[in-house]
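--- STAGE predict ---
source: upstream dedup step, 1 unique chain passed
mode: sequence only
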Amino acid sequence: MQPILSITDLTKTYATGFKALKGISLDIREGEIFALLGPNGAGKTTLISIACGLVRPSGGRVTVGGHDITADYRSARGMIGLVPQELTTDAFETVWDTVTFSRGLFGKRRDPAHIEKVLRDLSLWDKRDATLRTLSGGMKRRVLIAKALSHEPRLLFLDEPTAGVDVELRRDMWRLVRALRDDGVTMVLTTHYIEEAEEMADRVGVIRGGELILVEEKAALMRQLGRKRLVIDLAAPVPGLPETLARHRLKASADGAQLFYTYEAAAAGAPDLGGLMQDLAGAGAVVRDVTTSQNTLEEIFVDLVSQRA
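--- STAGE serialize ---
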């Protein structure tokens, strides 16, 4: 199946000589949610701006649904919806008018029923006659999403869509994103909130210094790079780790009441937990409780960026 978005050897060098993108190649599958993660200045917004036809690349090619974003701009851009970072709206327009106008910009016929559905899905219907200057920041961000959906795009870019909104609204956005995916809309999401990628994404890409350093299925990424940690609560603190426990590379808490055993979740062969427990008993340590946890996507992301700095 042809990808809905195909990026090949994409580069961008600004007049100052700054290289924002360095040979990015990426295919986005139809119907997926792709999360693009990276620190500030990594190239996320530049990549999205080029894919949406807002910035000209220095080299490479971008196609949307088979249409070249430069040579066949109108056809390619008509398939794209963009929710930008900045709250750029006309303060004196009503919600209904600004969303309806956005649909007309793409040459779409008037469709009040579709506009109503979009506004209702975004909990904006009661605000349809309100001017944008009277809305809260969270409501204005909903309007940006409504504008991006007004012309029924197949590919939606969300550039930091929940920046500056409260937790409740962020969760509403997550529900909306899932509903859009169920309707067949493909989404590319950039975010600083790693939990958004962990919650919603099918695949994750990590960009740093204008280079795409990793693209992986989220579940596979968690399996391959995630570490598990065993926390062993002791009935009584141990003053120091006996030599018999050295092979397990344990670490003790400051008070000696807990031991920590970290291992790679995807490492070949199962960890020797049975041997660990036997050695603990042999050292006279009495185990009160054992809990496990696995690396979050945020921890994995931080590790990746620091390793490749």
